[in-house]
Design brief:
Layout (H helix, E strand, L loop, with lengths): L4 H91 L1 H23 L1
Length: about 120
């Protein structure tokens, strides 16, 4: 018996169905693989973000520590200047005691006058 056109159509449709099933299976596998790769990339990206944030926090802490050191240096410099001013004032008082007393008396008199005038 020779194969009929109907038999050929059935055979071809069967092969087409088999190929469609295989294509669907391959597509599903490709999607699962892509999702797995995307998940791994997401994990890697998340780890990189955490690492960058940790590095940023460490840099901020280091900057704060340096800022504290800089503030201490500034305070030390101001204290040294204050000591120098006190020493120079003390030296001036030792060299010219009467002039120093006169300036101190005049400054006290002016301050007292200003204080009394603000009470009115």
């Amino acid at each position: 018996m020779t194969p009929t056109s109907t038999d050929a159509i059935k055979t071809n449709l069967g092969q087409a169905g088999t190929h469609l099933k295989q294509a669907a299976s391959d597509a599903g596998e490709a999607i699962r693989s892509a999702a797995g790769v995307a998940g791994e990339e997401l994990k890697l990206g998340k780890a990189n973000v955490k690492s960058d944030l940790a590095d940023s926090a460490l840099a901020g802490i280091a900057a704060a520590e340096h800022a504290g050191g800089a503030a201490r240096e500034q305070v030390d410099a101001l204290m040294d200047k204050g000591r120098d001013l006190i020493e120079s004032a003390a030296e001036l008082v030792r060299e010219r005691p009467l002039a120093s007393f006169g300036v101190a008396f005049a400054a006290g008199f002016i301050i007292a006058k200003l204080a009394r005038s603000s009470d009115k």
